[in-house]
UniProtKB/TrEMBL annotation:
Domain GST C-terminal: from-to ranges: 90-207
InterPro entries, per database record: Glutathione-S-Trfase_C-like (IPR010987), Glutathione-S-Trfase_C_sf (IPR036282), Glutathione_S-Trfase (IPR040079), Glutathione_S-Trfase_N (IPR004045), GST_C (IPR004046), Thioredoxin-like_sf (IPR036249)
Pfam families: GST_C (PF00043), GST_N_3 (PF13417)
Protein source organism: Oppiella nova
GO molecular function: glutathione transferase activity
CDD domains: GST_C_Delta_Epsilon (cd03177), GST_N_Delta_Epsilon (cd03045)
Any one Gene Ontology BP term: glutathione metabolic process
Protein name, entry field: Uncharacterized protein
SUPFAM superfamilies per UniProt: GST C-terminal domain-like, Thioredoxin-like
Subunit structure: Homodimer.
Bilayer-crossing regions: none
C-alpha cells in the first residue's frame, strides 16, 4: 500500500518530504492540494490534516502526520532505522542533525522576508529583513564550513530540508548565494548527487517566474 502525501509543489516542506520518500525508495501517492482553495481540497484532507489543514500531510497505513520535519524523522526512523540519513543509533549525531534541521526554519523565514514577500505582495524588503537574511546565511555558511554535507560528512534529512528551502532562491536565479560560498558550493554539488532532485524541484524556477509576472 503506497504512502499518501498531500502536497504542493511550491512548498519547500512538501518537497523536502517528497525527497525523503524518494531517498528511501518508498512508494508514494502524491495528492496535489491547494491549501488556499478550500473548495478544491480532497474530501479526506480536512479530516486527515486536522486541526492545521496544511501541507505536507502524510498518511502511512492510516496514520496521518503533519509538519515536514516530524514526517521526515518518522519516515527514516520507521523505514531505515540504521541509516545515516537520520542517525537514530547515535544520540549525539541525531541531536546535531536536529539542530541543523530546525535552524532551517530561520533560513526559510529569512528568505520569505527578503524575497518571497516581494513576489506575493509587491513589497520591497526592509533593511532589517536584508540584514537578517545575511546574518542567517552567514551562520549556515559557517555551519557547513568544509563539511561535505550540512551536518557533517554524511547525507541527512537536514540536507534535504535545506535543499528544498534554498531552491526558493530560484526567484533571483540564486544570485543571493554569491556571498556565501560554502552554501553555494554545497547546494549545487549535493543536488547533482540526488537522481530525483530535478524531478522534485525542477518546476520551481518557472512557477516562481509565473508568480512574479502575475504580481507585476
Amino acid at each position: 500500500m503506497p504512502i499518501d502525501l498531500y502536497y504542493a509543489t511550491l512548498s519547500p516542506p512538501c518537497r523536502a518530504v517528497l525527497m525523503t520518500l524518494r531517498q528511501l525508495n518508498l512508494d508514494v501517492n502524491v495528492i496535489t492540494t491547494d491549501v488556499h482553495k478550500k473548495e478544491s481540497w480532497p474530501p479526506q484532507f480536512l479530516k486527515l490534516s486536522y486541526p492545521q489543514h496544511t501541507v505536507p500531510t502524510l498518511v502511512d497505513d492510516g496514520f496521518p502526520l503533519g509538519e515536514s520535519r516530524a514526517i521526515m524523522q518518522y519516515l527514516v526512523s520507521k523505514y531505515a532505522p540504521n541509516s545515516d540519513l537520520y542517525p537514530t543509533h547515535d544520540l549525539k549525531k541525531r541531536a546535531h542533525v536536529d539542530r541543523l534541521l530546525y535552524y532551517d526554519m530561520s533560513i526559510w523565514y529569512a528568505i520569505v522576508n527578503a524575497t518571497v514577500m516581494k513576489i506575493f505582495r509587491g513589497v520591497e524588503p526592509t533593511e532589517s529583513a536584508l540584514k537578517n537574511f545575511k546574518k542567517n546565511f552567514n551562520v549556515l555558511n559557517d555551519f557547513i564550513g568544509n563539511n561535505k554535507y550540512v551536518a557533517g560528512n554524511e547525507l541527512t534529512i537536514a540536507d534535504l530540508s535545506y535543499l528544498a528551502t534554498i531552491s526558493t532562491l530560484a526567484i533571483n536565479d540564486y544570485k543571493d548565494l554569491d556571498e556565501f560560498p560554502n552554501v553555494k558550493n554545497w547546494f549545487f554539488r549535493v543536488q547533482k548527487e540526488l537522481p530525483y532532485f530535478d524531478d522534485v524541484n525542477g518546476k520551481v524556477p518557472e512557477l516562481w517566474k509565473q508568480h512574479s509576472s502575475a504580481n507585476k
